[in-house]
Write a structure and sequence with these properties.
The chain has 377 residues and is of the alpha/beta class. 42% of the residues lie in helices and 13% in strands. It starts with a strand and ends with a helix.
């Protein structure tokens, strides 16, 4: 039987490190996930943090999680090229067991200062995503994966997401992060049962799981309906722990379960103690549930022998639509105005399916885009 490592998202944040310190001291943290690109803006990383990352790297317990690559941006950017260059350099300095990125593209004109938003599931976007995943794998020379989205515009999009992810990562023998709080968001926002939605994902490709907390967004649309947001600023809900117990035996290649929380939500002794309590709860479920791992069907998700084309693939029509959508989400003063602008845009009557977007999710997208534009994640 294969071991599943109880892990935390550990970044250069004083509150996260204060909350995690007792766990490190008790040697309970078996691996760490580092959002490496959040430090790309710094010219130097403190020596003590390098020591921490290096310790887990030496024991093959370091995994990297990207945030800002913007996988599905229709236009290739110099920022994406620089991102790959820095990842390649880091991968020489540290031994990453795997590298992952978020699904979607970043809103905003440069796509690196915005909110992660989904894209149409088409053959063109599939080809674009495969090109980008191959470039990530070429840079890091290790297994690569993608995380399922928390945000969707419609139930139809929710139902198609798992299959599209499977087709994407298959091209690089990649894997999936199954974020269970993201699933929790979909369960609530679209009134779908966990046992039904989990069947829509290629569970044999799950190498990592995330658990976290979030918040409720009281939207102005649909009679003030609550929308669940993946904001990582609260404790892990009981339902997510229940999902974890159900999901572990279904994922035969699971290796890491990572607990995430924003440092801004860990600024008190009480919140730090709650973080530690949630970690112990997660660890207990992992140890008690065990794993459905079968050595006969083990997948190491080793990199393929292929490499990306010299010239990055681009889709200028998609890029134009992304710019229009970003502008609408960041500037519309109401859902009705956003709907009118979408109908008048090049997104209308296309694979985006804007005509079927749930109004309360469109309102949430507007809220997300504005907060990111103003500097709040």
């Amino acid at each position: 039987m294969s071991e599943i490592y109880s892990s935390i998202a550990c970044n250069l944040d004083a509150h996260i490190l204060q909350a995690a310190l007792p766990l490190f001291e008790q040697e309970k943290v078996e691996a760490i996930e580092w959002s490496f690109d959040t430090l790309f803006k710094f010219s130097e990383i403190p020596a003590w943090f390098i020591d921490l990352v290096s310790e887990f790297s030496r024991h093959d317990r370091l995994i990297g999680h990207g945030v800002y690559f913007s996988l599905f941006s229709g236009k290739w950017s110099s920022e994406q090229q620089e991102w790959l260059h820095k990842l390649q350099k880091l991968s020489r300095e540290f031994q990453f067991d795997h590298i992952t990125e978020h699904f979607g593209f970043m809103t905003g004109e440069d796509f690196h200062k915005g909110a992660p938003i989904s894209i149409p599931f088409t053959s063109r976007t599939l080809a674009l995503g495969k090109d980008r995943l191959q470039r990530i794998q070429d840079a890091c020379k290790c297994p690569v994966g993608l995380e399922n989205l928390a945000f969707s515009y419609s139930l139809d999009e929710v139902k198609k997401h798992g299959e599209f992810l499977d087709q994407l990562v298959e091209s690089v023998n990649g894997f999936i992060i199954l974020d269970l709080h993201n699933i929790y968001c979909q369960v609530h926002n679209f009134n779908i049962d966990f046992d039904d939605i989990i069947k829509l994902y290629p569970l044999d490709r799950v190498r990592e799981m995330h658990i976290s907390g979030g918040s409720w967004d009281e939207t102005l649309a649909d009679s003030g309906r609550q929308v669940r947001r993946d904001t990582h600023d609260e404790r892990v809900p009981e339902a997510v722990f229940e999902f974890l117990g159900k999901a572990i035996p279904k994922c035969v290649n699971l290796k890491y379960v990572v607990m995430e929380q924003m440092g801004t939500a860990l600024d008190t002794l009480e919140s730090q103690a709650a973080f530690q309590s949630d970690f112990f709860r997660m660890d207990s479920i992992i140890k008690e549930t065990g794993t459905g791992f079968d050595p006969k069907i083990k997948n190491s998700f080793a990199p393929t022998n292929r490499s990306a084309d010299i010239i990055p693939l681009e889709d200028h029509d998609l890029y134009k639509q992304q710019l229009q959508l970003s502008h609408i989400l960041e500037t519309a003063v109401s859902v009705s105005e956003a709907q009118a602008l979408l109908r008048a845009s090049s997104l209308n009557d296309t694979a985006w399916g804007v005509e079927s977007w749930a109004p309360y999710m469109l309102q949430t997208a507007i809220s997300i885009a504005r907060k990111w534009k103003n500097g709040f994640a």
